[in-house]
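Changelog entry

Holo records now carry the ligand SMILES as an explicit input line rather than a separate metadata file. Below, a converted record for fe (ii) ion, shown in the new format.
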Amino acid sequence: MRRRFDWMRTLHPVTQAGATAALEHFTTILAREAIGNPRHLETAPEEIRRLWCWHAAEEIEHKAVAFDTFLLAARALSPFARWLVRLRIMAAATFYLFDFMFRGMAEFFRQDGILTFRTWMRFVKFALVSPGVIRRILGRYLLWYLPGFHPWWSDDRALVAQAEEMIALPA
Ligand SMILES: [Fe+2]
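Structure line, unchanged by the conversion:
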């Protein structure tokens, strides 16, 4: 992580803002899924469910902050050039995110003594079939690649309200 962050700090500020916005797009679509699909947290202890709901709601609330910062930082670019920058950054961010995630998972599997082909197959089933987290967020992920995309294209305020209801303690 440290090496990667050191490298990222050498990139152009517009790229850094864009990379932050790209990663926030991931947290947003995952947050939507966490709140909108009760199945993900149904077996979690109550406190953990409340913590994740709070965090997911918070991710949705600030989902456009980095994106708007990127738009401001890249204001000298034409809309077309800005779109190309966004495409390039998201492709790279997706690669690095999955690279990091898979390495982390491999390390956890190794520590638990389950670093086997069968475990990876179970992960593929989890990601793509049931509950199919990656399959379910794919459509929204791809919205990023459309020209003129903005995080508030989808109004998620109802989900935030739903999360706030879930985290409220009984009076
Ligand atoms: Fe965030």
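Spot-checked after migration. The pocket of fe (ii) ion is lined by residues 24, 27, 59, 62 (CB under 6 Å). The longest helix spans residues 79-111.
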